[in-house]
Amino acid sequence: MKMAFFDRDGTIIEDYPDNKWTDITQPVFMNGAIATLKAVLSKGYKIIIVTNQYIINEGYITLKQYHHITKQMLDELAQHDIGIYDIYYCPHAKLEGCSCMKPRTGMIKQALLNHPEINLSESFIIGDSIVDVQLAVNLNMKGFGIGVGSDYGNNKIKQLTSIKDLMTYL
User: Fold this and answer.
1) 68 annotated as belonging to a binding site for a ligand
2) Is the pTM of this model over 0.90?
3) Is 98 labelled a binding residue?
4) Rounded distance, CA 48 to CA 90, Å?
5) Which residues form the active site (predicted)?
6) Which CATH number goes with the domain that contains 108?
7) pLDDT by residue (tens digit) across 89-101?
8) Is residue 18 marked as binding?
């Protein structure tokens, strides 16, 4: 199965400075995100979200706030006939040294355990942070970085200006 692993904040919905997340109650979709997700599904991919949420254990938001924002995002996507196959999040603080925080591979390994039908060689990772690109490199996967630099010495990594540019490569 072809899987598109999407980062959440800054890729699908807006991201904010850590301390501002405390006051966020509604997700705001990135320009072009909904159309891009629909197009990815139309190309035969399933979508899994993999997101670092260190702001939970660092005390900026509660687990309840995280789930509230995520539920609203999923409800809005469902209104556009966009189904998300699964979601993995890392709630650990940056200094906890967990195995799941990107660019470590724990969330993808868990996805493979839960969904062994995933074929990583036909899949890709996309995000707006260097850790998303590094995750793709760590797994020897195709990756797309939105505005995160230009050269990784790896022909599997492509740089995008915005999420809308993804369709050029699929």
Assistant:
1) no
2) yes
3) yes
4) 14
5) 7 (nucleophile), 9 (proton donor)
6) 3.40.50.1000
7) 999 999 999 999 9
8) no
On whether 80 is known to bind a ligand per the annotation, the reply is no
- How many domains does the chain divide into? 1
Across 78-140, the runs of DSSP E, i.e. the strands, are 86-90, 124-127
Determine the average pLDDT of the residues in 130-143.
94
Provide mean pLDDT across the span 59-86. 98
The tokens describing 140, both together, are: 């020897």
Residue positions annotated with a catalytic role: 7, 9
Domain hosting 41: range is: 3-168
Q: Report the first-to-last Cα separation within the chain, whole angstroms.
A: 15
Strand pairing class (46-52; 86-90): parallel
Per residue in 35-45, pLDDT tens? Answer: 999 999 999 99
Cβ-in-10-Å burial (0-12, 13-18, 19+) of 87 comes to middle
Q: Please answer whether residues 123 and 4 qualify as being in contact, where contact means their C-beta atoms are separated by less than 8 angstroms.
A: yes
